[in-house]
Amino acid sequence: MSGKTLRLKRFLTPLNGRLVIFPLDHGVTCGPASGLRQMGKVMRMGIRGGVDAIVMHKGMLPLLETVTQPLPGIFMHLSASTQLGEAPHHKVLVGTVQEAIRRGADGVSVHVNLGGSREPDMLRDLGEVGTDCAKWQIPLLVMIYVRGEQTPSPVPDDTIAHAARVAAELGADIIKIPAPRDYDVLAQITESLPVPVVVAGGSKYADTRLFLEHLQKALGSGVRGVAIGRNVFQHDRPEALLIAIRNMVHHGFTAAQALDQFSQK
User: Fold this and answer.
1) What residues act catalytically?
2) Which InterPro entries does this chain map to (predicted)?
3) CA-only gyration radius of the chain, Å
4) How many CB atoms lie within 10 A of CB 255?
C-alpha cells in the first residue's frame, strides 16, 4: 500500500467511501466574508458537525493546534487570487507540497480556472504540483472550473465534463467540480473517471429544501461527496445543516428526511 493510499483513508470514510469537505479558503479571495470572520469558531463548528476534510490556507493551520478532539483530514490550499485585482480568476501558487508536509497537512488542494488567457499558467502549475504529490505520496484535491473571459453564462455542461477530465488526466486524486445542470451529465462524468468526484455547494441557496434536493440528485448521480462552504457557514443554523448534509452523504438520508431532522433540531 502506498503512502498516498494511506493518507486518502484519512479523507474517505470507511463507511461508504464518501466524504464531506468543508472549504474554508475563501478569506484570501473574498476577505473576511460573512460567516468567516471568526475562523477558529467556524472551524470548530465544522469539526463538531463531523466533516471528513477541511481546506485551509497555510496561515490558518495553527488554529487546529487548539482543537482537542480528533481532527478530520486537512488539505492545505496552494492557490490564491483576490477579487481586488484585475485578474481574480488567475490563480497562482502560494505554497508547496513540501511546505504542506512540514506544516502537518494530510493533502493539498489546487484551484484551476479554464477558458481564460492565463489557463496555460494554471495547467503548468497543476502539472508541477501533481508531480510533487506523486513524489511525496500526498493526496491532491483539484478544484476545477470553467471561468474564462469568453466563457458563456451559464457554463455549458460539456465544458464542465472537459474540466473534470483535465483534472483526472493531470493527476488529481479527488476532483471538485460545480454540478452540471443536467444530472445525467454528472453521472457520465463520475462513471468515466478513475478518481472520486465531489460537487461544489455553489452559490448561496436561499431555500434549504432546494439545496438539500439538489444534493440528493447529485449523490444519486454517483458523486462521492460534496465540498460545501458558504451554504453552510453563511446559513442561520450552520451546524444543524452540516449534520443533515453528513447524514445524506454517509447514512443515505433523503432530502426530505434530512430536512425533517434539520427542522427538529
Assistant:
1) 145, 176
2) Aldolase_TIM, DeoC/FbaB/LacD_aldolase, DeoC/FbaB_aldolase, FbaB-like
3) 17
4) 20
The strand pair at 79-80 and 92-93 is best described as antiparallel
Q: What residues form DSSP beta bridges with 146?
A: 114
CB atoms within 10 A of CB 174: 26
Q: Which domains, ranges and CATH numbers included, belong to the chain?
A: 3-205+223-230 (3.20.20.70)
41: three-class secondary structure by DSSP: helix
**Residues 6 or more apart in contact with residue 106 via CB below 8 angstroms:** 7, 10, 11, 73, 74, 75, 138, 139
Query: In this predicted model, what pLDDT tens digit does every residue of 165-196 receive, in sequence order?
Result: 999 999 999 999 999 999 999 999 999 999 99
Judged by phi (left if over 0) then psi (alpha if -120 to 50, else beta), residue 182 lies in: beta
Rounded to the nearest 5 degrees, what angle is found at the Cα of 67, between the Cα atoms of 66 and 68?
115
What are the grid coordinates assigned to 62, written together? 495553527
Q: CA 173, CA 167: separation in Å to the nearest integer?
A: 9
Asked if residue 92 lies in contact with residue 71, where contact means CB atoms within 8 angstroms, the answer is: no
DSSP secondary structure string for all residues of 103-170 = TT-SEEEEEEEESSTTHHHHHHHHHHHHHHHHHHT--EEEEEEE--TT--SSPPHHHHHHHHHHHHHT
